[in-house]
Amino acid sequence: MNGRELYLELNRHLLRDAEPSRYLNRICGDPLFRQVPFDMLDRLRQTAQSPIYHPEGSVWNHTMLVVDEAAGQKEKSARPAVFLWAALLHDIGKPDATTIRKGKITSYNHEIIGERLAVEFLSCFTDDEDFIRAVAALVRRHMQILFVVKSLPFADLEGMKREADFHEVGLLGFCDRLGRLNADSEKEKKNLRLFYKQCGQR
Question: Is the whole-model pTM more than 0.85?
Fold first, then answer.
């Protein structure tokens, strides 16, 4: 299997599988995962997260949970391929952003780094610029649901709306919040409704 074939297989499993993580966990040991650009995904396996917010462990473990959540929500997305690739790549910036600050693991601005890396990754396999931009925009904005609900200074509804569909951003953010072992589904459903309300949906 070459890189192009692996990309197509990833795409097929993301779109068709009820739990894409089964295939991803099986294939991640392939030597191709240590080559460009799949090494971006491989690095997720070695990147730690705060055990307080992510008791599931590495960024890879979290991403697998998010991808499976997204697979279960894809019927709600207007563009399932964009949505599922964004789910897979949403934290691709964490390996570069992760550091220890005052004894705590942090990954500030990983979504900004992730936007660039998502473009780099997808550009290796497709010249569909609309698709690439749409995925990258969701990666860039996937934290907005948290920023908005917590009234953080990083919230940027107008900027988000210029770049991405807020329904898709909310749906990805919802899957991101559920993709952890200590998730509170009822709380996250409430937060999603609040996010949509802040976006102007009644």
Answer: yes
